[in-house]
Amino acid sequence: MTANTTLLLLQSRPLEKAIIEPPELVHILDDESLPGIGDFVPWLAFLDFFNSRRRWRAHRRIDALIESILAERRRLMAHCAPEGLPHDFLQDNSERKFCLPTTVEWAMSELLRHPECMKRLQEEVDNYLMVNDDHVQEMPYLYNILKEVLRLHPIAPLLVPRVAKFWPDRFLEAETDLHGQHYEYLPFGSGRRMCPGVRLGISVVQVTLANPVREFEWELPQGQNADSIDMSCKGGLGNRKGAPLLAIARRRNL
């Protein structure tokens, strides 16, 4: 189902008619996103021969994919009425991109490793029947959890030291936000190169995290504990977890 939805989003066609299979597409995007030495030391970029070749191959494959989609779209536009055309992937919302579900997964992993934080968040979200975009503006602890998750598990990780302890309260007194105004903390960048979807992304992650936390008690499968959660990073596109999070949801008695 996930693969089918992704292919409909990116290629306007179901899985069985895919131009590029999902694993290959993810591999291409991973190749494109892996950093090279030139990303950290620009004047040594000329040494990054293998990384340059990998990116060049990825660009060729992405170009081929886009050209095939455009050719198919031109063919459809020539023979179909506008209402008969499939959705354009460039017009879709950013909720379906890699970084948002990855951030939610990191957040749930940290909350399961720190049940006291999960409990505090449940107390905050219990004041609402269903959390929406307006409600999250009144949830400072939820916002602090998001900031702490992005501090520990940034979408575009850099090789800089970070305090490893998960502690959302570090942001209680600080005025640090996520919008690129505080240069000690720039998970989405700043200035003209800042992520254009930052406000939407923050809102979507908060709502997506708050509602399952409100509706369910979360626990790990039998035989697992907080220390057994794999917190390794796979790297590549979106800083994904090394292993998917497995958790059991049981409806709360509210």
TrEMBL record:
GO terms for biological process: secondary metabolite biosynthetic process. Belongs to the cytochrome P450 family. InterPro entries: Cyt_P450, Cyt_P450_CS, Cyt_P450_E_grp-I, Cyt_P450_sf. Gene3D superfamilies: Cytochrome P450 (1.10.630.10). Keywords: Heme, Iron, Metal-binding, Monooxygenase, Oxidoreductase. It comes from the Eukaryota. This is Cytochrome P450. Heme binds at C195. It comes from Ceratopteris richardii (Triangle waterfern).
